[in-house]
Amino acid sequence: MRSDPRTTTDPGEPVRSVEIEVKLDVDAETAAPDWRAVAEVAEVAAPEVRELDAQYYDTADLALGRAGYALRRRTGGPDAGWHLKGPRQGAGRVELGWPLGKDASLPEAVQAEIRRLTAEPVRPIARVRNRRLAVQMKDAAGGVVAEFLDDHVETRDESTGTERSWREWEIELGPAAPADAERFLGDLAQLARNAGARPASSESKIGRALGR
Fold first, then answer.
1. Which of 18, 56, 87, 117 has a 20 to 30 A CA-CA distance from 62?
2. How many CB atoms lie within 10 A of CB 4?
3. What class has domain 5-209?
4. Of 84, 29, 87, 21, whose CA–CA distance to 57 is shortest?
5. Structure pTM?
6. Where are the domains of the chain?
């Protein structure tokens, strides 16, 4: 579930959202299944192409990452902006979002939040570019129960220059997800595995970009 950071009226006040998703690795030729095989999915929308470009930041000793946090500035897509993802809590991760700002410098509001976690300065650690095909799954009433994200990822580790590329799927719960959301997400993930997907080799894109 995700909120759009641009809906906030105060640029210093972050928008808080909870992201509940399943991440899977897939081969280049793997085709997505028909999500309507899961009972709650009545309609599958046409794919929306999103060109995403994210710069990730951390301290010299990667203190944020070691504590389970990820800080990025991302352009492209409906939630372009600064994002701070927190450690996993149960089934999801809390994410704070701020507007992009006029340039790539770290906004004071974001700096203030980071100072709660570390006194050390942050610097760019990796660039993650992603050509994303986003597909909304809807119920009979037209509510979005989940979103399927087909990601074609290219990354560069800023400290070593190492470049990596891969394809992955994400299935993220939507605002109209059924009450038994855990079972529903599990059904979607099983359908994806039946189509050839496998458990993700890394918990996050930034982790994989850094070889973790």
1. 18
2. 14
3. mainly beta
4. 84
5. 0.90
6. 5-209
